[in-house]
Amino acid sequence: MPSKWSGAAVDPGGGKPTPGDWQPVEVPGRPAAFAGEDRVAYRTVFDDPRDPDDDLGLLELRGCYAAAEVWLNDELVAEPDAVFDPVRVPFEPEAENELVVECRAPEDRFGGIHDTDRVPAERSVPGIWWGVDVTGQPDPFVVDVDLRPRVTDDGASIDAAVEVYAGESLDDRLTLTTKPAGDRRGRGMMDRASVTAGAGERAAVEKSIDVRDPSLWWPRGMGRQHRYEVRAKLGDGARTSATGIATVQKTDAGGLRVNGEDVPVRGVALTDAAVADAERAVEVNANLVRAHAHPLSEAMYDACDEAGLLVWQDLPLTGPGVFDIARGQDLAQRLVDTYAHHPSLAALSVHDEPTDTFAERVGSGLVDRLRFRYRVWRSDYDRGAAEAVAEAVPDGVAVYPVVGEPGTDPDAAALYPGWDYGGVDDLDWVRERYDLDGAVGEFGAGSLPEGVDPDADDFDPAGFDRAKHDAVVGSDDPAASQAYQAELARGIAERLRTDGVSGSDATGGSSGSEGRERTDGAPVVVANALRDAGDAGMGVYARDGTPKDAVESLAAAFEPVQAFLVGASAGECDVIVANDAPESIAGTVTWEAGAESSEVDVTVDAGARAVVDTIDVPRSASSVELSVRVGETSVENTYRL
């Protein structure tokens, strides 16, 4: 990769940018010096990248936001029009080569979350965000290996599309070797395909590779993350790509079914994703990440493949307003085509938060509920455009056309009791009144990290609603702020996972779950967000990755096997066990409240929730401690009263 870059803000004008004043910058990156600029040009000069055995060069750019023109040695060689659109340009290097890339801010509605005030301006700078590589190559060479796995009646197939570049005319055979990823000793399966190309041409070779008795890729907690590598070799050059075999369907209830098995989804939304966020998602016991109105990088998808995290990918479209349907259809198709080789890609949504019904918070009294209903009634949203785009999404990906507030008839609801309106106790009536018993794509509350002063001159409020925060927290104390967020995140997550159970559902006794009322809970539960984009926000981690109090509470609420206390207070309360494991569990639930304690043997089916006991919490108790033990594993859950 070229080591020295310079950048400059430029005006529209056509042709290769030639600003008079360049300044040093880091690429890939988002130079803060150009925050707020609509057009930024980047320039580097690099030597011939070829080794003695090389004949040609290959330029690769990843993450040009939001569109770009690429000039190599004074020639316009590429014009990507989406940040996920990769650039691969074969070329014949000179002794010294000049590369100039002009990146432009969004000029339509598809700039996504980076085209809003929920992300700091310095994180939305037009630039080369993900990577640049310049390498020497033989002639001919493999430019790209694109893979599309699919399950068949006989096992599985991997459809490989191999792009080849030839400096001189070519008539040869391409060798494809397929084997399990990480298998260094195995020889793998070999296939061959003919390839012809004229001098200076790119040729596409398509080959279907049969995989007998395939090992499937599973989400974390459901099985192993098996993957396959396909190596395409032509002459002296080769290129390898990886994929995994998995099927994804959307259930009638709005959930996800992977490889024929329903997967209870515990997810977190990513506001401005970094690769390290995959590890953070695992820390809070998530099995899905939602790319909130922005595409993820290839590196992030690779991390999700490895960690077993499903990816719910949004189109870069958020907020009220009309949009170009044809442009949306094109982006939806290309987005899936770009990332289809990743087994983690599970779902796609089109229009995020199309209304702003609760720009100002609504309280929780009787009059406030009337005000809530009036706002929803007048919100007025037409789903037609989003549904038209959704119809263009290729098969194999679950589709949620609309993620929105009550009143938008959403496919996945954005629910913010305790933040936009009311409190945690308002969740049930909102979901019931507006028929929102399916997937939940967003919930949560904002908070202040330690050491942040929201009144400071340099405080960046991106993604943080100060008015709502002050209304529900009543303090600028980070400890109080984080305590409120932690309690709300836990309360909403627990209620969604135990959806439909109340004290009247319990049958009493202590002989286990047999004969008791069961509930499946919300099929998809996604907390917003994993990490702050600005100095404060909806993240359970701060901008720099420092955990807030809500990390621990969300992780407890998202434990795959967990015991919950419904309506934790003095008096009779139901104990519910949620089992997100792929197999039924048999174990023991123990509870302790003040001087009272007991235990009950439980059996809960895979993917089920069961009321396993009803306990009488003494008024003198200050807390209730629950523990569910299965085999040698024990998980605890503590409620402060």
TrEMBL record:
A biological process term (GO) from this entry: carbohydrate metabolic process
Protein name, entry field: Hydrolase
Keywords for the protein's UniProt record, in alphabetical order: Glycosidase, Hydrolase
PANTHER family for this protein: BETA-GALACTOSIDASE, BETA-MANNOSIDASE
Species of provenance: Halosimplex litoreum
GO MF term list: hydrolase activity, hydrolyzing O-glycosyl compounds
Start-end of Basic and acidic residues biased regions: 181-190
InterPro entries per UniProt: Beta-gal/glucu_dom_sf, Galactose-bd-like_sf, GH, GH2_Domain-Containing, Ig-like_fold, Ig-like_GH2
Domain of life per record: Archaea
Region: Disordered, residue numbers: 1-33, 178-201, 495-521
Domain Glycoside hydrolase family 2 immunoglobulin-like beta-sandwich positions: 142-238
